[in-house]
């Protein structure tokens, strides 16, 4: 086994969605139309001479469209017309053309705000349906499955999606707790069908197959059958399967075209000697069958699995993300938040992550009390 020490890192900063990615409008977008209206009024009242700034009032309704509904947009547009025409503000005697222009812009802005509000409501509904469908494929990971504590993180490469080309799951069955993490060919929505097929096969195999090698063979057969009608499909996936004993003190690991997990123990990272076998979908029955490697676990141990979106991420100089070096320092605090801390550290190393990123943290936990 190979041992690597690491250095400590700072606490992670959680990634937040931006305004254009579905988050509510920022406060300044809501305040800006009113602030502009108040600013024009104050400037006219304070100035000893009339100011030719009435054209600014024409910008208030379009700005209101960005963050307000049709009612608020109509009110702000009406106020802009009132300020433009009331003599007390003395906006350099605006003509009828200026007033009609602001009125037209206000009416058009109300119409646009109505259309935007309806489209936003429709998009919210469609996004809720899409999220429900995607979470049905990859449901949230429970904190504990039998004697195994779990934590996971998934970041799809395609923005606005919850599922891409990576997948993971942890399930309990009659033969113990099994876990899988893998990466199918491609990423984004085009790979979701393959992910759903593999996860369905895994969940069935957990109930039927007595050992992890047989589970891997079932997944391999699933991909082979799915691509049988298209000889040029070249459908394959890499995966790591873990089979925990009844007390989670021993884990059997099968790697199919992918490196095995990293073992975090006593502030160090230990890399178990797991040989990556043939990827799924290439015919495990015809090639060399996968070989399971048994690893004994102690209290406090953590198995860390990461997709190639983590290990192959490069910084501006082309250097790969040094996962094994960073893990010990990042795992020094609460192990349950390890995946989130690694994600934040990864983004600092490579701000423009273009691949699906998946992390899975597993470890034995004491039996629950009565």
Automatic annotation (TrEMBL):
<dbReference type="InterPro" id="IPR001932">
    <property type="entry name" value="PPM-type_phosphatase-like_dom"/>
</dbReference>
<dbReference type="InterPro" id="IPR036457">
    <property type="entry name" value="PPM-type-like_dom_sf"/>
</dbReference>
<feature type="transmembrane region" description="Helical">
    <location>
        <begin position="98"/>
        <end position="115"/>
    </location>
</feature>
<dbReference type="GO" id="GO:0004722">
    <property type="term" value="F:protein serine/threonine phosphatase activity"/>
</dbReference>
<dbReference type="Pfam" id="PF07228">
    <property type="entry name" value="SpoIIE"/>
</dbReference>
<feature type="transmembrane region" description="Helical">
    <location>
        <begin position="53"/>
        <end position="86"/>
    </location>
</feature>
<keyword id="KW-0378">Hydrolase</keyword>
<feature type="domain" description="PPM-type phosphatase">
    <location>
        <begin position="148"/>
        <end position="364"/>
    </location>
</feature>
<protein>
    <submittedName>
        <fullName>PP2C family protein-serine/threonine phosphatase</fullName>
        <ecNumber>3.1.3.16</ecNumber>
    </submittedName>
</protein>
<keyword id="KW-1133">Transmembrane helix</keyword>
<dbReference type="InterPro" id="IPR052016">
    <property type="entry name" value="Bact_Sigma-Reg"/>
</dbReference>
<keyword id="KW-0472">Membrane</keyword>
<keyword id="KW-0812">Transmembrane</keyword>
């Amino acid at each position: 086994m190979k041992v690597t020490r690491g250095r400590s890192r700072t606490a992670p900063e959680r990634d937040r969605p931006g305004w254009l990615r579905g988050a509510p409008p920022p406060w300044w977008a809501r305040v800006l139309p009113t602030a502009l209206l108040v600013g024009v009024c104050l400037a006219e009242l304070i100035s000893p001479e009339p100011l030719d700034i009435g054209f600014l009032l024409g910008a208030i309704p379009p700005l209101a469209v960005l963050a307000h509904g049709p009612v608020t947009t109509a009110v702000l547009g009406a106020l802009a017309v009132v300020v433009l025409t009331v003599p007390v503000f003395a906006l350099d005697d605006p003509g009828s053309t200026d007033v009609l222009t602001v009125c037209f812009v206000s009416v058009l802005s109300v119409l646009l705000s109505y259309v935007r509000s309806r489209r936003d409501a429709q998009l919210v509904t469609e996004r809720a349906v899409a999220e429900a469908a995607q979470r049905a494929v990859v449901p949230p990971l429970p904190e504990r499955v039998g004697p195994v504590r779990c934590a996971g993180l998934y970041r799809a490469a395609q923005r606005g999606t919850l599922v891409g080309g990576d997948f993971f799951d942890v399930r309990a069955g009659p033969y113990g707790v099994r876990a899988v993490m893998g990466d199918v060919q491609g990423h984004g929505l085009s790979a979701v069908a393959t992910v759903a097929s593999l996860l369905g096969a895994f969940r069935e195999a957990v109930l039927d197959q007595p050992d992890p090698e047989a589970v891997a063979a079932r997944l391999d057969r699933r991909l082979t059958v799915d691509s049988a009608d298209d000889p040029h499909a070249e459908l394959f996936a890499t995966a790591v399967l873990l089979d925990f004993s009844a007390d989670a003190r021993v884990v059997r690991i099968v790697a199919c075209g992918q490196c095995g997990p990293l073992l975090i123990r006593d502030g160090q990272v230990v890399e178990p000697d797991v040989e990556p076998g043939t990827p799924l979908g290439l015919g495990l029955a015809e090639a060399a069958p996968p070989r399971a490697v048994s690893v004994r676990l102690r209290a406090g141990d953590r198995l860390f699995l990461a997709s190639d979106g983590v290990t192959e991420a490069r910084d501006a100089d082309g250097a790969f993300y040094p996962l094994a070096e960073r893990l010990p320092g990042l795992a020094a605090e609460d192990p349950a938040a390890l995946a989130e801390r690694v994600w934040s550290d990864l983004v600092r190393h490579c701000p423009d992550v273009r691949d699906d990123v998946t992390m899975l943290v597993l470890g034995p936990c004491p039996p629950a009390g009565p």
